[in-house]
Amino acid sequence: MAVIGWNDYIMKKVNERRGKDGQDLVSLIVNAEWEGESLSDVDIMFETMLVLVGGDETTRHVISAGTAALLQNPDQLALLKNDMSLLPSAIEEMLRWASPIRNMNRTATQDVIVNGMQIRENDRVLLLYPSANRDAKVFDNPHSFDITRTPNDHVAFGAYGRHHCLGAPLARLELKILFEEMLNRFDNLQLATDQPLISRRGNFVLGLNEVPVTFTAK
């Protein structure tokens, strides 16, 4: 199984870094201490797996969902092709639209009232990011794909603070490069099916199974 292979691989890297003054992310995770305690091997395996998934699957799903959204909204595609300075805001809209991370569990650190609901200290809270990113109290026409949306205070990378995605700058850079190259190199980019695009099953990281397209190279 892939998870066993990953465990064997990462534990080899962990043992190479344990007790050494490395500054790479795995070294920082392995050698971190809080009040004299460090992470267990199981904790480290899952933390590093989360980094792997967060740095791979999520960006791929935004690429596929963003491509589909542009092709399903030809006015937005034409707007972007005519003014590539809109690409940064288009990427933020793709992130809001895709919301590849579906949920995250958190533990309340203190009593708080949210929208009239009482949350107690140590209560477990399930955050539903796609719901937040379609909140009509925050976004005008939340179910419309709008590459000029401003402001666009989505939570595709989580809320700001200690839980904000550490890979957010890399993800934005990858998306910028990919869509720049795709729109510069391809003409007549179209969906190759008129059937509904199917999402993969799951309850954590979700995206489209496939986005078949046709194009002509410039």
Roughly what fraction of the amino acids lie in strands? 5-15%
Count every helix, treating DSSP H or I runs of 4 or more residues as helices.
Answer: 7
Strand order across the largest sheet: 1-2
CATH architecture of one domain: Orthogonal Bundle
Family: Belongs to the cytochrome P450 family.
GO biological process, one term: cholesterol catabolic process
InterPro entries: Cyt_P450, Cyt_P450_B, Cyt_P450_sf
GO molecular function, one term: iron ion binding
Topology (elements, then pairings):
Blueprint (H helix, E strand, L loop, with lengths): L1 H16 L7 H6 L2 E2 L2 E2 L2 H32 L1 H9 L4 H12 L4 E5 L4 E3 L2 E3 L4 E5 H4 L35 H18 E6 L21 E5 L1
Antiparallel strand pairs: 1-2, 3-6, 4-5, 7-8
Helix pairs in contact: 1-3, 3-5, 3-7, 5-7
In short:
This protein has 218 residues and is an alpha+beta fold.
Write a structural description:
This protein has 218 residues and is an alpha+beta fold. The protein is globular, with a radius of gyration of 20 Å. Helix 3 (41-72) crosses helix 5 and helix 5 packs across helix 7 (168-185). It has a domain at 40-100 and 164-217: Cytochrome P450 (Cytochrome p450). The protein has seven helices and eight strands, in the order ααββαααββββααββ. The strands form four sheets. It has a two-stranded antiparallel ribbon with strand order 1-2. 20% of the residues are buried. A hairpin with a 2-residue loop joins strand 1 and strand 2 (37-38). GO terms for molecular function: cholest-4-en-3-one 26-monooxygenase activity; heme binding; iron ion binding; steroid hydroxylase activity.
